[in-house]
Amino acid sequence: MLRALSTRLRSRFSVYGRELPPAFWFLWLGTVVNRLGGFAVPFLMLYLTGRLGITPASAALMVSVLGAGSFISQLTGGELADRLGRRPVMLLSFFAAPVAMVTLGLARETWLLVGAMFLLGFFMDLYRPAVSAAVVDLVPAEKRTRAFGYIYWAINLGAALAPIAAGLMANIDFFLLFVGDAITTALFGVIVLTRIPETRPVASVAVAPVHLRARAGHIAREPILLIFALFALMFGMIYAQSHVTLPVAMADSGLPPSDYGLAIAVNGALIVLVTLQAVRFVERWPRFVGMALAALLVGTGFGLTELAETLPIYALTVVVWTLGEIIGAAIAPVIVSEMSPPTMRGLYQGVFGSAWGLAFFLGPALGGFVYGELGSGALWAGTFALGIFLFVGYLLLGVAAQRRMQPAPS
Length: 410
Description:
By secondary structure, the chain is mostly helical. It has one domain: Growth Hormone, Chain: A, CATH 1.20.1250.20. It contains 17 helices and no strands. Helix 3 (about 45-50) runs antiparallel to helix 4, helix 4 (about 55-85) packs antiparallel against helix 5 (about 85-105) and helix 4 (about 55-85) runs parallel beside helix 6. The longest helix is centred in the C-terminal third of the chain and has 30 residues, at about 375-405. The model has no long low-confidence stretch (mean pLDDT about 85).
């Protein structure tokens, strides 16, 4: 089975690898290395509640500070990627985040934990708009769905293995998670430093003299982008439960941390197995129809968590929402790239990414509150209802976007 999978992967990459530039593949490689060490964030709730003895509600609120840092960093990183270039932003992110990561692992005082959590969220995600903008710079429009699908596949190639290793490491010492994560993040920085050139278009050099207020005003006049970002916020709030209330729910079912690691590993493993095939179909779909289906699957998958008590059932719910995750991850950044002018690629991706950052600020706090005060039934029913809302919303937004692109009658 493994030999057959390896043969298929080599065949697939031999065909598409020639169609995408070498710099893209170094971004892909750096992503794999970085995510192979993505140990700490999925286990933060278990670390805070189990190792440090913090209550689930307080821990969820603390983890939400990570999202606050991410929210600010995505907007900042997107604007800096347009003004300074993609490469400087990536280097700052990959060499500053490890310091914040180790600091968080050593912190015990509440104020230091919160401060390190915020800095980690900021520097950990600062690079994301720059990488997305670089992919748009490097890859022709007709191949971007495939390229973003490959980047997401790379993320989860590491994520398929990292939770299993992290679960075993956590049984020894939680601090190992922070050290391992810091090392692999820094290695991505070395790859950028030595192998990835600046990709910012020449036209974007003119961005520097443009006042930020003028660029913000341009964003404010893009209702489709803003509504799409609002939907991404809601989508992300559902997904945030995978790192916050899902591990708590599994613990309440009497399952150990290693079982949570196995359940989340299903997420990464499924993405590794089906993403390369899925993006070939997804790139032919109407963009907003694909996003509607993605939202429906994510909302339904988390809604089914209410029925789970054993590891196999939890793993089955992970399969459902992972399918939605795969579709959304390949399509969403392409929709944003199709809206953005060349001089604002970073900022547009930053606006979209900031919605995800805000989701990981509001999602943990809201999810932890609902789970603690109203019970798991209310939480999982809410995720399902939100998925239905987004399903309808994406379909309507697609109609609006299509009408906006049509020329006015003469």
